[in-house]
From TrEMBL:
Domain Protochlamydia outer membrane protein: 29-285
Domain of life: Bacteria
Entries under Pfam families matching the protein: Pom (PF17251)
Molecular function per GO: aspartic-type endopeptidase activity
Native source organism of the sequence: Pedobacter frigiditerrae
Record-linked InterPro entries: OM_adhesin/peptidase_omptin, OMP_A26_sf, Pom
Name of this protein: Protochlamydia outer membrane protein domain-containing protein
Length: 287
């Protein structure tokens, strides 16, 4: 009887909650392009959008539950506003970005980024103060980028176009954690395979349908890293600093445009890239 009670007590101690609210700053770059036709020609880059140095603040939360047998489950969500940035919109007549016939630098100081994930990790190896844990899980990412009127171009007055992206997929990777009495240092590296779907509302082009002017569909690969420094204040509270890198490489896919007086047209979506760096400060509560 005494052994059973002790075993139950030990099992209970393994079930630990960790909750970390945090705030942060981000810097994001994004670009995509399409070709002139579905074969990727005429020209190979017809239109290109580049969002540069999108900056803003955000907040998020991580909730981790420690299970028996060295397993843990972590749910996380983070939301960042875009408060500063610009976008370059360029159209080309010839291959390889030759003979541009339209180019403008636009305001892009609105929008947001949202990331959410659910990961299962297993503490597989321990070398003294060093732990190595494989990770698998699912994730959902969303961004809204905007094109707003340019001060230098009166013809863009009233411009309020949006490009909304959704990524759905799964992650895999490894966390390496170094623990000692004064601090913990960890590095988490993740890869992932995702489905990419985007919808655009080009509000100043009269021929396009609204609110969905065109869509993009493709496959993406993610590479992300999180370097974390954790300093304990007491047994229940830690201060944590994270530097996060999030990169998405989207491969070629489909661009389908919708017109008011014409049938939809398809061309080659050449792909997209997304790069986000974030610096976050949080408080971690254990109970």
């Amino acid at each position: 009887m005494g052994f059973s009670i002790m075993a139950l007590a030990q099992a209970d101690t393994l079930k630990k909650w960790n909750i970390k609210p945090f705030v942060g700053l981000h810097n994001t770059n994004c670009d995509w392009s399409i070709a002139g036709n579905s074969a990727g020609k005429n020209p190979n880059i017809l239109s290109e959008l580049i969002w540069d140095n999108l900056k803003g603040f955000g907040f998020g939360i991580e909730v981790k539950y420690t299970l028996p047998k060295n397993l843990s489950l972590k749910a996380s969500s983070e939301y960042y506003k875009i408060k500063k940035g610009q976008a370059t919109d360029t159209d080309y007549a010839d291959d390889n970005r030759e003979s541009p016939f339209y180019s403008d630098v636009l305001n892009a100081d609105k929008g947001h980024l949202f990331n959410s994930s659910l990961h299962l990790s297993y503490q597989a190896l321990t070398f003294g103060k060093l732990n190595i844990s494989p990770i698998i899980g699912i994730a959902y990412n969303q961004q809204e980028f905007q094109l707003l009127e340019s001060i230098n171009n009166p013809s863009t007055a009233g411009l309020n176009s949006t490009y909304k992206v959704k990524y759905r997929g799964f992650d895999f990777g490894t966390a390496i954690i170094f623990k000692n009495r004064l601090f913990n240092l960890s590095l988490e590296v993740l890869g992932g395979f995702y489905k990419y779907g985007a919808e655009a509302n080009w509000n100043l082009i009269p021929d396009f349908e609204k609110p969905v002017s065109f869509i993009h569909k493709a496959n993406s690969f993610k590479l992300a890293g999180d370097l974390n420094l954790s300093v304990p204040i007491n047994k229940q509270l830690k201060v944590e600093l994270d530097y996060k890198i999030h990169q998405m490489k989207t491969h070629a896919g489909i661009d389908r445009a919708f017109y008011i007086n014409e049938a939809p047209k398809e061309t080659l979506f050449n792909g997209a890239t997304l790069n986000t760096n974030a610096l976050c400060l949080g408080l971690s509560f254990n109970f």
